[in-house]
């Protein structure tokens, strides 16, 4: 009777039989899935032919099948006919042939003497060694892959493979002498037939993992994903291209190469940051787009720095050639603005994807020379498009990010952006990352610009597979592009394609690279471009002919010549052609100077206020913190008295916009609660984890979506994300709040290059709101100053070019002309109006608001509903209504210092002597309202008072503008802290003394 062994039973049998041998300890044996596979194969072989297995196992299975004691000690002596031989000697001599021969006959007799199971153990150890060498290729193959087209970095690849063989006991087991022997293929480790000759296993591993593709994926903490990648890589024939695919790939390489040659021929002395050396990037991008379009994606947002940008604009985005060439021939811009160099500009086009005849939209986000800073901007823009398209799975909109090798591993913004990839509030459901791996960073080679083995190692943190591929093998590139596109569709996760290439020119076309890399560039100059080699390959295969090559090159060259001829008919460069986020219809038919009240009817204000101040509905059985109960009660009391504090002012602004159908998107490190525990937009159930309640999300049945979420501990990337979000649709309020205003320093490059100068360079408007807590309260140099002076230095406000003060629309015209809005509000009503004004303007400006800490709960800093009802507006200046025109001193100030000055003035009984005027808006400077105050107090001494140190804060900015208005009739006196290299005193005693001193000075009459 034949027995059917299960894996569990076989495992048990194997353990008992091994441990029964007196020479084998249990600690020496590892039973794993491979061992079970071996046993099953052994048992099945015995069923077919008892003579095909080792006699120890034949006896074992025979006794078991007969119902007797399964385990019996096997003999130490073997009888072959009449000849007697020790078993171990026989096994040593005949083991290589045992697997395939029938050396033992049924007549073989066994003496009942004790022995060990050395043969069984040897077989398993051989199997383990084979498995180990396969694992070595899978784990480390990318380090020995033939990736470098120049052959510089892969010279020691053979020695690496040899080391793996040593580590896997390949030589110790003598497997190097058994290459023609068949071994079981561990099906959980490698995809292949049940058995393979050892040399074929090794050859297949080398082909898959150390050829022109090197894959990193074994660190991914999801076995299903690992198995998926193995399936794509190890399935025979998976990388083979059809004839049609090869032709399409070749045609794309032709256009890429001929385009670069055309630019070099026509404008040889111009910088263009060409793609020579990585021409395969363009076909790779198009293949990813083709594949993803077939999966349903309709919208692509591309973020990249300058290398290859012009070629991408033309051959991927299909930017009209005459619009690009107009930049080369030096036409003046049609619109007002400084513009930017051609390889920094963006675009947005709708094109027909000819691979599947689907209409798609491709946008390239404008980018400054800060290389990787476009990454989070691109992600934010993509997230916004997904939101407004109702695309919750990323199946309609996706980003493609293109990096440089040295910047990808060297710039912190890359890591910050990567960490956003899987956060629920920031995820774009998978970014496809390309790395143009020039193997050089400007003039620095990899030995000196990174510590990691590969430039892409930072991407490991997001569990993304990384495909390194030799950029001189276009078909291998296409293979990984198809896998990358399928990965994103299947898992909605990021993927990285590292195109290992070279840079044929220097950093730019007029740079001499041989100064610093003489040997590398000696090799490069003797190396033909990839098109040359690939064309020769296809001609040899009979896919194309030499005649077809000449014809196609000539056809595309004529297209380029026609584009150049058309560009010469242009009279201006139109910046509107280079918008990466055109707001179709937003400006049409609108008066850009229209002024509308930002007030709201009192009934709505009261409703929102009461809803925001009420606990969650009883039916939710939501348990709030007792401290929250107290806060809600205090809020409700204020609403009943028609009075609001700062938190209510924020809530009323957001709630009223939501009622009007305006989407609000708000993030920062602690925005849900608020760094200073004043906001509490998200309440947490005190007894059930992950259960929250947001009253502003449930105000009206048909309100817009309110998205508020704490961000990662990042300023640079999160600010960039919010900026990108704000550029997609002008009809949403997008806000970012720094934990402390000081921390925005780490996002300075984003602020300088994108926020404050974006419209001037790229004609792109954005209504982003930045909230920067600011105020000197003895909290030290990193928790006091938002560096107001830095932002004022970024303003293009100029009294010499401001509209005439007598113009009745001066304020709105001036607001339209400047690049940013800077405000330092001191009342809840003004923050309410500021936020709402961002949506009520018929244009968009970034608004940087220096928000308070001290006055969040200050009783004097409260507003009435009367300040927010219909017909009310934001107040750029708060005049002193209580001081007559005969005051001795006119003191201007901004921010929370007003309340300290007001208190001190009252103590000294100087109310009639000192007029205190608050500037709530610093840029655009309210010249008209400030002049009105100057005219009101013609004989008064003019003083500017601030809590910041001299030459920090607004002093230098305001002094120049006050003097302009005074026309040298008076001098403006400064009252404030002295100069300091640090923003604030860290010692509490010094802080108090400094504060007392400058307030005392300010009160001198």
Automatic annotation (TrEMBL):
Domain of life of the native organism: Eukaryota
Classification via InterPro entries: 2-oxogl_dehyd_N (IPR032106), 2oxoglutarate_DH_E1 (IPR011603), DH_E1 (IPR001017), KGD_C_sf (IPR042179), ODO-1/KGD_C (IPR031717), THDP-binding (IPR029061), Transketolase-like_Pyr-bd (IPR005475)
EC number: 1.2.4.2
Principal EC category: oxidoreductase
GO cellular component: mitochondrion; oxoglutarate dehydrogenase complex
Gene3D superfamilies from the UniProt entry: 3.40.50.12470, 3.40.50.970, Multifunctional 2-oxoglutarate metabolism enzyme, C-terminal domain, TPP helical domain
Pfam families per record: 2-oxogl_dehyd_N, E1_dh, OxoGdeHyase_C, Transket_pyr
UniProt keyword annotations, A-Z: Glycolysis, Magnesium, Metal-binding, Mitochondrion, Oxidoreductase, Thiamine pyrophosphate, Transit peptide
Compartments it resides in: Mitochondrion
UniProt-recorded Gene Ontology molecular function terms: metal ion binding; oxoglutarate dehydrogenase (succinyl-transferring) activity; thiamine pyrophosphate binding
Signal peptide: none
Obligatory cofactor(s): Mg(2+); thiamine diphosphate
GO BP terms, alphabetized: glycolytic process; tricarboxylic acid cycle
Primary site of residence: mitochondrion
Domain Transketolase-like pyrimidine-binding, residue spans: 644-858
Family: Belongs to the alpha-ketoglutarate dehydrogenase family.
Function: The 2-oxoglutarate dehydrogenase complex catalyzes the overall conversion of 2-oxoglutarate to succinyl-CoA and CO(2). It contains multiple copies of three enzymatic components: 2-oxoglutarate dehydrogenase (E1), dihydrolipoamide succinyltransferase (E2) and lipoamide dehydrogenase (E3).
Protein name as catalogued: 2-oxoglutarate dehydrogenase, mitochondrial
Species this chain originates from: Henosepilachna vigintioctopunctata
């Amino acid at each position: 009777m034949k027995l059917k062994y299960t894996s569990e039973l076989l495992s048990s049998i194997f353990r008992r039989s091994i441990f029964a041998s007196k020479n084998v300890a249990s600690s020496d044996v590892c039973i794993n899935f491979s061992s079970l596979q071996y046993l099953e194969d052994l048992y099945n072989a015995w069923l077919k032919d008892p003579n095909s297995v080792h006699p120890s196992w034949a006896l074992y299975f025979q006794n078991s099948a007969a119902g007797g004691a399964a385990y019996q000690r096997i003999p130490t002596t073997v009888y072959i006919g009449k000849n007697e031989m020790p078993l171990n000697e026989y096994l040593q001599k005949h083991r290589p042939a045992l697997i395939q021969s029938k050396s033992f006959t049924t007549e073989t007799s066994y003496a009942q003497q004790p022995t060990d199971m050395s043969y069984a153990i040897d077989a398993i150890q051989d199997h383990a060694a084979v498995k180990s060498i396969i694992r070595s290729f899978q784990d480390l193959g990318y380090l020995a892959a033939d990736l470098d087209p120049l052959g510089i970095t892969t010279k020691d690849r053979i020695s690496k493979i040899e080391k793996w063989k040593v580590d896997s006991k390949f030589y110790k087991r003598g497997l190097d002498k058994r290459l023609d022997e068949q071994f079981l293929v561990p099906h959980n480790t490698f995809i292949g037939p049940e058995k393979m000759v050892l040399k074929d296993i090794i050859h297949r591993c080398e082909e898959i993992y150390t050829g022109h593709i090197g894959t990193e994926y074994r660190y991914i903490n999801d076995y299903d994903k690992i198995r998926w990648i193995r399936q794509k890589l190890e399935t025979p024939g998976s990388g083979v291209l059809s004839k049609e695919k090869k032709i399409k790939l070749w045609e794309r390489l032709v256009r890429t190469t001929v385009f670069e040659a055309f630019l070099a021929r026509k404008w040889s002395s111009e910088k263009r940051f060409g793609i020579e050396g990585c021409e395969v990037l363009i076909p790779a991008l198009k293949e990813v787009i083709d594949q993803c379009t077939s999966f349903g994606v309709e919208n692509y947002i591309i973020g990249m720095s300058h290398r290859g940008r012009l070629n991408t604009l033309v051959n991927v985005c299909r930017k009209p050639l005459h619009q690009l060439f107009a930049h080369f021939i030096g036409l003046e811009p049609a619109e007002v603005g400084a513009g930017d160099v051609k390889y920094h500009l963006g675009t947005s086009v709708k094109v027909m994807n000819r691979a599947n005849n689907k209409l798609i939209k491709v946008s390239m986000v404008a980018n400054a020379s800060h290389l990787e800073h476009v990454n989070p901007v691109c992600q934010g823009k993509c997230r916004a498009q997904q939101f407004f398209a109702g695309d919750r799975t990323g199946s309609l909109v996706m980003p493609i990010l293109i990096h440089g090798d040295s910047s990808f591993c060297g710039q912190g913004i890359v890591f910050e952006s990567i960490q956003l990839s899987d956060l629920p509030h920031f995820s774009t459901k998978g970014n496809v990352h390309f790395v143009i791996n020039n193997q050089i960073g400007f003039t620095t080679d990899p030995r000196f610009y990174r510590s990691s083995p590969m430039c892409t190692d930072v991407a490991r943190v997001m569990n993304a597979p990384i495909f390194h591929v030799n950029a001189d093998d276009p078909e291998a590139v296409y293979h990984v592009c198809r896998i990358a596109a399928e990965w994103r569709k299947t898992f909605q996760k990021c993927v990285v394609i590292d195109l290992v290439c070279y840079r044929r020119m220097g950093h730019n076309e007029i740079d001499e690279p041989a100064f610093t890399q003489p040997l590398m560039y000696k090799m490069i100059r003797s190396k033909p471009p990839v098109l040359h080699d690939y064309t020769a390959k296809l001609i040899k295969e009979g896919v194309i002919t030499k005649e077809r090559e000449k014809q196609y090159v000539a056809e595309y060259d004529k297209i380029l010549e026609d584009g150049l001829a058309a560009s010469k008919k242009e009279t201006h460069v139109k910046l509107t052609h280079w918008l990466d986020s055109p707001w179709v219809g937003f400006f049409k038919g609108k008066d850009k100077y229209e002024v509308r009240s930002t007030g709201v009817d009192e009934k709505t204000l009261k409703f929102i206020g009461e809803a925001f101040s009420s606990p969650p509905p009883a039916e939710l059985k939501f348990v709030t913190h007792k401290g929250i109960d107290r806060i809600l009660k205090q809020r409700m009391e204020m609403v009943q008295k028609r009075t609001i504090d700062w938190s209510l002012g924020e809530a009323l602004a957001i709630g009223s916009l939501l009622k009007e159908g305006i989407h609000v998107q708000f993030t920062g490190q602690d925005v849900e609660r608020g760094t200073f525990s004043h906001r509490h937009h998200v309440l947490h159930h005190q007894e059930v984890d992950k259960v929250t309640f947001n009253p502003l999300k449930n105000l009206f049945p048909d309100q817009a979506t309110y998205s508020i979420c704490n961000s990662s501990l990042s300023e640079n990337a999160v600010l960039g994300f919010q900026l990108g979000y704000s550029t997609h649709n002008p009809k949403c309020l997008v806000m970012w709040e720094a934990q402390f205003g000081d921390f925005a320093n780490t996002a300075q490059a984003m602020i300088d290059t994108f926020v404050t100068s974006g419209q001037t360079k790229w004609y792109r408007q954005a209504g982003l709101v930045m909230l920067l807590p600011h105020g000197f309260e003895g909290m030290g140099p990193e928790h006091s100053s938002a560096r107001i002076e830095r932002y004022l230095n970024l303003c293009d406000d100029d009294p010499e070019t401001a509209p005439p003060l007598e113009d009745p629309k001066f304020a709105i015209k001036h607001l339209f002309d400047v690049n940013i809005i800077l405000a330092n509000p001191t009342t809840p009503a003004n923050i309410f109006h500021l936020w709402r004004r961002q949506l009520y303007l018929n244009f968009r400006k970034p608004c940087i608001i220096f928000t308070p800490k001290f006055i969040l709960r200050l009783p004097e800093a409260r507003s009435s509903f009367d300040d927010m009802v219909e017909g009310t507006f934001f107040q750029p200046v708060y005049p002193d209504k209580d001081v007559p025109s005969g005051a001795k001193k006119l003191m201007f100030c901004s921010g929370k210092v007003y309340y300290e000055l007001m208190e001190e003035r009252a103590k000294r009984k100087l109310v009639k002597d000192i007029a205190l005027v608050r500037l709530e808006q610093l840029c655009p400077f309210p010249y008209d309202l400030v002049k009105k105050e100057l005219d009101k107090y013609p004989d008064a001494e003019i003083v500017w008072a601030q809590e910041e140190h001299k030459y920090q804060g607004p002093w230098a900015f305001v002094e120049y503008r006050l003097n302009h208005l005074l026309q040298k009739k008076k001098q403006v006196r400064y009252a404030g802290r002295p100069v300091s290299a640090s923003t604030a005193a860290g010692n509490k005693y010094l802080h108090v003394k400094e504060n007392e001193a400058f307030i005392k000075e300010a009160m001198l009459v």
